Amino acid sequence: MVKVEFLGPIGKASIEIEANTLAEVSKILKEEEDISHWLSQCAVAVNDVMISDLDFSLKDGDKISILPPVCGG
Amino acid sequence: MVKVEFLGPIGKASIEIEANTLAEVSKILKEEEDISHWLSQCAVAVNDVMISDLDFSLKDGDKISILPPVCGG
Amino acid sequence: MELYQGPLDIKEIFGRWLEEESRANYGAYIPFVGTIRAEEGIDGLSFDIYGPILAVWFERWQEIAKTKGAKVKMAHAVGDVPIHTSSYIAAVFSPKRRVALEMIDAFVEDFKANAPIWKYDLVDGKRHYATDRSTPMSGAGLLA
Amino acid sequence: MELYQGPLDIKEIFGRWLEEESRANYGAYIPFVGTIRAEEGIDGLSFDIYGPILAVWFERWQEIAKTKGAKVKMAHAVGDVPIHTSSYIAAVFSPKRRVALEMIDAFVEDFKANAPIWKYDLVDGKRHYATDRSTPMSGAGLLA
Question: CATH number for the domain including C102?
């Protein structure tokens, strides 16, 4: 199981899913009605490290963060 | 008569000279032993306005400032 | 890196940073202060921050600064920040001015684009996500 | 434009400027603080300033800033400034960050090149003109 957190304005509670790669996470999230439309705008981190590889493999207990468009300052 | 002031590190007292243009000022200052070697590095102001024209004409009472290389900050 | 609930005490932070580095022999200290502007009927802005990734982002900048003999600092507000008060201060210290002038620009721009902070307009006590002013982070769209 | 005998009280100036503009709806405030570095056995630096031409120089920058909706401020020390104290603070206020980031760079660089200020190293109580670090002003050599 891995945990998926939705940050900032997405406003959705964390979920736990079974996934071995980010590609599998993608597949599952695309089916979530309230999240799928965010995905094209969101970056991804695994255990607080930004990741840009869809084949990145996950292990049990990993934390995946979904980061929508930012505007600090 | 115009007054010529030597600013910053030049360390020379002001002088009063007869001159109708900056070209005439140049001619006179080149003959001053303690100032001539500064001239290639110095900018010039007339009545506190920076001037870059040697033909600039002067009137009685004008103040000419000789400004050596700067380093503020 | 400093995070505060509500508006920043800019004078306190500026002065403390000045003192912290007063013996470090830096010739240039350039802070950038971000203040909430009154516009479009907002009462202020509100911010969410994801601290762990902000810390990683900031650590990378500390390394970049170190390679140039410089130092970076930053503080940001969490939650509501009324107009005419400040939500952000970032600063670069460096021995020479060119490094500091170039780094404050790069640091502030990268902060804007890649720090995990979300901004909301505050209107009548409600938060409205600032969609139009927000930027997708590097690598956005991976899961789409 | 503010000139002070000896080192600047940077915290006082920074805080006062912040307050002066606190209702002017600027989103960005970028000060540049210049501090005397300990190097080559100097006790400090010393400065001569020719006020009238500095005022003209600064007035031109106020005009440039105004055309971009921004504001510039500056303060500089006259006379002796010991190491680890500050001789210079300049600042830009502007509604948006890009204008402020670009203007503080241009303002500080032009100041360095064209403000009528002369710098001396202080060693054993004596002033030595900083020839090697000084720059001829625009138009230098006219009378040569």
Answer: 3.90.1170.40
